[in-house]
Amino acid sequence: MELKIKAQAGSFESSDVLIMVEPQPTGVGRKIELESIVMQQFGDDLLNQIHRDLDALGIDDIRVIINDKGALPPTISARLETALKRSAGLQAGTLT
Amino acid sequence: MKNILQREIPETLEGIGEIEPFQGAFTKLRKGWMEEETVPPPNKAKMPHSSKMCSNLKEAVIRTNPRNGMTVSFHHHLRGGDSILVETIKILAELGIKDITLASSSLTSAHEPILPYLKNGTITQIYSSGIRGEIGEAVAKGVMPKPFVIHSHGGRVRSVHTGKIKIDLTVIAASAADIEGNSTGAHGPSAFGSMGYAVIDARYARQVVVVTDNIVDYPCVPQAVTQNFVDYVVKVDSIGDPSKIAGGTTRITKAPMDLQIARLAAQVIEHSGELKEGFSFQVGAGGASLAVAKYIRKIMKQKVIKGSFILGGVTSYGVDMLNEGLFKSIFDVQSFDAAVSTSLMTNPYHIEITAGLYANPFNCGCMTNKLDIVVLGALEIDTDFNVNVITGSEGYVRGASGGHSDTASGANLTVVVCPSFRGRIPIVKEKVHTIVTPGESIDVLVTERGICVNPNRPELKENLIKGGIAVKEIKDLAAEVEKITGVAKPIQNEERIVGIVEYRDGTVIDVIRQVK
Q1: How far is CA A7 from the centre of its chain?
Q2: Name one GO molecular function term (chain A) (predicted).
Q3: Least buried of B170, B229, B257, B284, by fewest C-beta within 10 Å?
């Protein structure tokens, strides 16, 4: 998947997560900024999950900003996937 | 040392003294009397026709000779609308009084202005049934030098009898009082209903000040607190924010999840074998717990069952059920809305009771012992059914013990209602952060994801299965929840103990450690 533009998915609602993605030049690597209301309990889990999902899609150079209000793992994966698809122009988004 | 629930408890703790570990809900009560000696209440004298009236609260406080190291007590019947606690603490601070022990029957959001006084040595210890919000955060971070004590409503009465809480000054807010201090919360512009928690303070405090915004002609009736215990009376312009003291009626939640849990809980109660003619009933005032009353009301009408009494914190919903003839009476230690005050004032079967009669384990029988069914909430519940209602997911104090352990120990059927997880935080889990009510007192857990019966109640499980209700093992439910949320890392604490949780019999059921 080739990222083209900044994109986002999700919301600030409780039990949801807002994920923003921004393409980065090749070789920059992944910059992940994580904020979560369940940081203590699930911070490491969350970060691992994001890396796993990015691995699966073969995305290495990206900035991801995550603001998590206690979303469950499937919600997080879904929001990330949607943000990435919007960024790649594969899906219409709310922020183009 | 470890108590019977395997919680690590110190043998002594600075600011508390010797600690007796929790040994089981009835181990101490079985003896039939309390081993600790009770302290005598003070005996005072007043000359005939001398005046108790003070021109303002400050004058009254000065006349009580405040001193460093004193204990000052309050009731929390004004809920989120109270201004008297904060005003009194401000006056004491202005007078330069330090090292105060604050013994309020509970603390609410209205009390947050006392925060600076916790940090500057004015208040150095708290006894309360509940602490929330910014105060709960501050005390968990360890701003006070001495550990705070969380007690139940019944346990507080015991602590006053034994002198563990030795009240030097109590300031009692009333919505109506006369010049001798006969006072009530049942009428007046700021009516708040029952004054049940204040009565023990009036009996035992060295100095008793009644504060009201409404002086009525002598004698004030009904009398929740009587003049023979009152030293001074103050008329003030306001005892707080009337809209928050006596706000309208309590509404049943519209949250679909809470309603679903309540519906399931009502089915459990219906088939438990306890919902029968003459049963007694208590529900909490919020969320799923109160919503259970809505479904029970329906079932009672359908099956033509009449109950004996409603107990506890009373909402207008309970009053409606009394007025419909579904229950014979209400015994009211604490009222939650304006409609309740009116009923308390006018209906002879709506009776104000003291905290001692409500829940003190050490007397010849508190009313929680007569409860058939109680429905309670939980912040967390573990696979041994132990319940946390005091610390939140970050380890801060954000709840209240209240009557939770009192009613749970007394009732024939104790139902806990809560979601199986909130946000991503598991509620049903292997180990709760803080135990307030021991699992032995909990009979059944109702969540949106499953109903679990305590293994010590096999006959209840049988009744539910016969009624067509699916039950599952609590360990299976916890595992199911963990699969959904992922495995939560436990909260990191410092070693330092910042608070203790007393069981109703005075033993220590758990401690609260400083949040990192």
Answers
A1: 10
A2: citrate (pro-3S)-lyase activity
A3: B257
CB contact under 8 A, B424 and A40: no
Distance (Å, whole) CA B215 – CA B254: 40
The neighbour count for residue A87, using CB atoms within 10 Å, is 27
Q: Is B501 helix (H, G, I), strand (E, B) or coil?
A: strand
Nearest to B131 by CA among B106, B156, B112: B106
What's A33's domain CATH number?
A: 3.30.230.10
Least Cα separation, residue A15 to chain B (angstroms) = 5
* Residue B316 pLDDT greater than 50, yes or no: yes
> Per the domain annotation, does A95 fall within a domain?
no
Using a CB-CB cut-off of 8 Å, the residues of chain B touching A40 are: 393-394, 489, 491-492
Q: With respect to residue A38, please indicate whether it lies within any of the assigned structural domains.
A: yes
As given in the structure block, the two tokens for residue B110 are: 């209205």
Return the structure tokens found at B55. 């021109």
Residues sharing a CB contact under 8 Å with residue B417, sequence separation 6 or more, in sequence order: B261, B262, B265, B287, B288, B289, B292, B375, B376, B377, B378, B446, B447
- Tell me which chain A residues have a C-beta less than 8 angstroms from the C-beta of B485: 42, 72
Smallest Cα distance from A87 to chain B, Å: 27
Residues 393-422 in B contacting A (C-alpha not used; CB under 8 Å): 393-394, 422
Rounded CA-CA distance B267/B288 in Å is 14
In chain A, the number of structural domains is 1
Written as six digits, the tokens of B201 are 């303070």
Q: In this predicted complex, what is the ipTM? A: 0.88
Q: Which residues of A touch B491 (CB under 8 A)?
A: 40-41
Kindly report, residue by residue over B136-185, the tens digit of the pLDDT: 999 999 999 999 999 999 999 999 999 999 999 999 999 999 999 999 99
Residue B430 contacts A, CB cutoff 8 Å: no
Inter-chain CB pairs, A–B, below 8 Å: 38
* Residue A92 lies inside a defined structural domain of this protein: no
Q: What is the predicted pLDDT for the residue at B338?
A: 82
* A72 closest CB neighbour out of B485, B489, B492: B485
Q: In chain A, which residues have their Cβ closer than 8 Å to the Cβ of B484?
A: 72
pLDDT in tens, A34-86: 999 999 999 999 999 999 999 999 999 999 999 999 999 999 999 999 999 99
Q: Confirm whether A82 is domain-assigned.
A: yes
Tell me the residue range of the domain where A23 lies: 7-87
